[in-house]
Design brief:
mainly alpha, three-stranded antiparallel β-sheet
Length: 162
């Protein structure tokens, strides 16, 4: 099946190449306008001399489930190295920062939910128009959803931290 598919793709590629190499004519109509056509024969048509098209095949894509062959990507030899103790300290600092961000986001979420009041926040003085009230309520709902997503992402990062 794979060979059949490869053969079909090769055949289509050759056909496209052959079609792309067809003759091109430049013709001048009665108004003096240039027209480019693939058929000549009209009055004022001349065949153009074009260079051949160069075709370069794309690199092969590895099949699903197969690892690409070759050397895996690595850091350059002159890339600075960090000793294990320094890296552990950095990882520890990173985890503390993430935990602090998580704490702040959870506090923010609690405040947003309190203000949101289950979808019925208190009306403000400038919200005599119900549409303004609804707009603010929808913005609050969006803020709550965004903060909840931030909390989920921070929890994932903390779980992945070393």
């Amino acid at each position: 099946m794979n060979r059949l598919l490869s053969g079909l793709i090769l055949f289509i590629g050759v056909q496209a190449f052959a079609h792309a190499q067809g003759d091109v004519y430049v013709c001048i109509d009665e108004n003096g306008k240039k027209l480019y056509q693939n058929k000549g024969g009209g009055k004022g048509c001349k065949k153009m001399d074009l260079q051949d098209i160069t075709v370069v095949p794309s690199p092969a894509i590895p099949a699903a489930g197969k690892k690409p062959q070759g050397k895996p990507a690595s850091s350059p030899n002159d890339f600075p190295k960090v000793d294990e103790g320094t890296q552990k300290a950095r990882d520890s600092d990173r985890k503390l920062i993430l935990q602090e961000e998580l704490k702040n986001e959870e506090q923010k979420l609690a405040g947003l939910k309190k203000d949101y009041n289950n979808g019925e926040p208190e009306r403000q003085g400038n919200e005599r128009n119900f549409a303004k009230y609804q707009e603010r309520t929808n913005l609050m709902k969006d803020d709550i959803a965004r903060t909840e997503k931030n909390i989920e992402a921070l929890k994932r990062e903390i779980a992945n931290a070393k």
